[in-house]
Amino acid sequence: MSSSASEPMTPAQRAIWAIVCLSILVIVVVRSFIGDGMGRVYVEPKPMDFVAEVTTSTENASESTTSWKQVSTVEFDAYVSANGYTNTISWTEYDQVPPRAYFAQEAAGGGSIVLSWPRTIGLWLAAFFTLAIFSFLYRDNPFYKFAESVVVGVSAGYWMVVGFWDTIVPNLLQRLMPVFSKDYLTPGMELPPGGFDPTNLVFLIPLVLGIMLVGRLLPKCGWLSLWPLAFIVGTMAGLRMVGYIESDILSQTKETVIPLYVQGENTSSNFMMIWSTIWASLAQILLVIGVLACLVYFFFSVEHKGAVGKTARVGIWYLMITFGAAFGFTVMGRIALLAARVEFLFDDWMWLIDPMQQREFISASVGLLF
Amino acid sequence: MIRMLENLDRRWIFLAMALCVSVPILVIGLTGVTFPETPTPLAEAFFDEVDRAGEANGRRANVLIALDYDPASAGELSPMSLSLVNQCAQKGHRMYFISLWPVGPQMIEESIDKVIKRFYPDLVYGQDYVNLGFKAGSEQVIKVMGIDLTTEFRTDVEGTMLSQIPMMEGITSLEDFDLIAEISAGYPGSKEWVLYAATQYDIPLVSGMTGVQAPQNYPYYPTQLKGLLGAIKGAAEYEFIVNDYVREARVRSILAANGIDEETSLGLSKQLDQISTWTTSAEAASMSPAAKAELIDVATGATPGEFLEGQRRMGPQLFAHLLMVLLIILGNLVFFAQRRRGGSA
After folding, report:
1. What residues pair up with A197 in beta bridges, in sequence order?
2. Half-sphere exposure (CA, 13 Å, Cβ side) for A364?
3. Hey, which residues does B227 pair with through a beta bridge?
4. Is any Cβ of chain B less than 8 angstroms from the Cβ of A53?
5. Which residues, listed in sequence order, are joined to residue B65 by a DSSP beta bridge?
6. Which residue of A2, A189, A346 is in closest CB contact with B8?
7. Among A140, A236, A296, B3, which is 20 to 30 Å from A219 by CA?
8. pLDDT single digits (tens) A310-342
9. Alpha carbons A242 and A246: distance in angstroms, whole number
10. Sign of dihedral through CA atoms A142, A145, A147, A149?
11. Under an 8 A CB cutoff, do B75 and A341 touch?
12. Domain-by-domain residue ranges, chain A?
């Protein structure tokens, strides 16, 4: 029915698609000169100033604890002018604010809200990558290849960092080397009494198994990885077997053994009660028939002929309806994701719409265009 | 015509789909009008289960909120998360956020920033909500949490020890939660929570999920899954119920603050469409003009855009589905026409 995207396009098709791409470019350029522009992120700096409070123990004068108290900028400046920067920590946090707040500030004659270049560039990059991925619908191209490679690279890097900080540090290093971890990796952690818990030596086993798993990378030591793999497969098989038997077999069987007649809701109208009784009972009957018919369809020890064949046929119908529902749901899901990206382009990037009421000035001016 | 359809470049279909999605988004975005939603029993069950969490134990509910998705599915699932947090915050539940997906903590942060920090600034971190972050290990994390939660989660996402977080007092395992509310984009997700938490420990579980997952999770409703939100349609229905609930709850709290008894305020909050009538009648006679103005503002004010995401996305759904139906019919017409001519189908 359709020609492949890899096939050459006719001159007419090429002209039409060139017009479409050019139109998008023109809309973006024109849009950037209308009203207050587009695609900018504003932030408000928030100073975070802390002063150390040292409390000496009433029982032992040599023991003291340090806690950090957040103070206002005025208090912080007063403290610094009196004591210097010793025992102080300060940094600035930048909270994103809606463009509306920036425009209100400018109208009032200035304030602390400023344009954030890093976040604005990030927003334009997000828009570029969204369009680069969409461009694959036209045909494979360098923009798509670039975006695809960036996604793969960033994902791999992100997974590696997350794996180190969320798995290796808390599950291994904090248990086997708590003092080292507290000093160099996670200063907020609590040390066990005595600095080390001997029962944590059991974590040497996963350490050894983990090192053996890396053996796959060395051609002569590949066999070493078979043991940890066997451990993983065995553990997961056992874990899942119990879960599935309990949840998918026992509970689901129990839910299928149900009465075929269900008394409807007791309403004032007799007709409604009879109707709800018929409806509820029909649902139960259809459920039981569906389960039995699908089971018969997957029963291949008997040839699907006669009564068995007809029942299996009913099972196929049930399966087809299930696949249809699954397809419908999948379509709905994919369209929702597309809608979310288009909303991002129209709202955050192009400032064409304003569903979050972030830019009342702009949406009013753009609204006049439509 | 049939010849043209047979040779139609598929890129025309992509363009038609782009128009079907983008034009309704523009129109809805500029006019603010969304399609009306009629909640189904599944969405109502989800809402009711969250609403009555903790009632059986006669205490403020501890709700474990697992956001197991990433930005790739946020378009479908983020509306569910925002409405879930909105309902829990309005109801006064204690919220414990976790994620079994590496990018989940960002989704948690987004929900906290968009809902709690903006609309419920009085809620205190560590007392009303806590972010326990991501844990690697998929279903094994759930299994271990069922026995001893502190084995897996020793600190919150900022690195604060759980022993220093007030709302973690008395929380040792999954059984200390009154409800698990889970939003899932795949593995690990709804299925794993059903298998290792709801079934094994008999803890009430409600789940919102992507459209791809919904059909395989329907059999678990209503025993193992007490409520289910499937895809953006489920999100829009739930959003609709929660928005109504929050508006009514706020009206009731204003009435209560102005000395109106509970029974009267409950009745009045159900008649928000007639608020201009009953604010001038005997029931609200004791209220000051400023209180009445505030009441009318809450009852008739626009719903924040954050809580209409799902309903907004149902507009493009309608036109995209109509296009799909049309394409399926055209595809079949071409198929039968080819078969009639004796060509290969």
Report:
1. none
2. 4
3. B206
4. no
5. B97, B181
6. A2
7. A236
8. 999 999 999 999 999 999 999 999 999 999 999
9. 6
10. negative
11. yes
12. 42-108, 259-347
- For chain A, positions 351-370, list CB contacts with chain B under 8 A: 352-357, 363, 366-367, 370
Subunit contact B223:A255, Cβ cutoff 8 A: yes
Burial of B146 per CB tally in 10 Å (0-12, 13-18, 19+): middle
- How close is the nearest chain B Cα to the Cα of A115, in Å? 20
**Contact with chain A for residue B146, Cβ under 8 A:** no
* 8 A C-beta contact, residue B225 and residue B190: yes
Please give the CATH architecture assigned to the domain spanning B41-241.
3-Layer(aba) Sandwich (3.40)
Q: Cβ(B210)–Cβ(B30) under 8 Å?
A: no
Q: Give the pair of three-digit tokens for residue A342.
A: 């288009």
Please name the amino acid found at residue A225.
Answer: S
Q: Is B197 exposed, middle or buried (0-12, 13-18, 19+ CB in 10 A)?
A: buried
Token pair of B208 as six digits: 């919102």
pLDDT at A56: 78
Q: How confident is the model at residue A2 (pLDDT cuts 50, 70, 90)?
A: very low
Amino acid, single-letter form, for residue B250: R
DSSP letter string, A280-333: HHHHHHHHHHHHHHHHHHT-TTS-S-HHHHHHHHHHHHHHHHHHHHHHHHHHHH
Question: In this complex, is the C-beta atom of A64 within 8 Å of any C-beta atom belonging to chain B?
Answer: no
Beta strands in chain B (DSSP E): 62-68, 94-99, 129-134, 179-184, 205-209, 227-230
Question: DSSP character for B98?
Answer: E
Query: How far from B235 is each of B19, B93, B290, B315, CA to CA, in Å?
Result: 23, 20, 36, 13
* Contact call for B305 and A339, based on CB within 8 A: no
pLDDT of A5 over the 60 cut: no
Choose the mutation target among A329, A356, A365, A369 for the interface with B, i.e. most B CBs under 10 Å: A329
Among A18-27, A98-107, A128-137, name the one with the lowest average pLDDT. Answer: A18-27
Q: Report the distance separating Cα B22 and Cα A352, nearest Å.
A: 12
Q: Mean pLDDT over residues B327-334, rounded?
A: 93
| Cβ count near B17 (within 10 Å) | 19
Taking only Cα atoms into account, the Rg of chain A, rounded to an integer number of angstroms, comes to 33
Q: What single-letter DSSP state applies at residue B64? A: E
- E strand spans, chain A: 42-56, 64-71, 88-97, 114-115
pTM: 0.89
For B225, name the nearest residue in chain A, comparing CA atoms only.
A247
Nearest residue, CB atoms, A239 vs list B134, B140, B316: B140
**Interface list for A 148-207 with B (CB within 8 A):** 158-159, 162-163, 166-167, 170, 186, 188-190
Tokens of A325: 């529902």
**ipTM of predicted complex:** 0.90
| Best mutation target, B199, B226, B323, B344, to test chain A (most A CBs within 10 A) | B199
Q: What is the CA radius of gyration of chain B?
A: 24
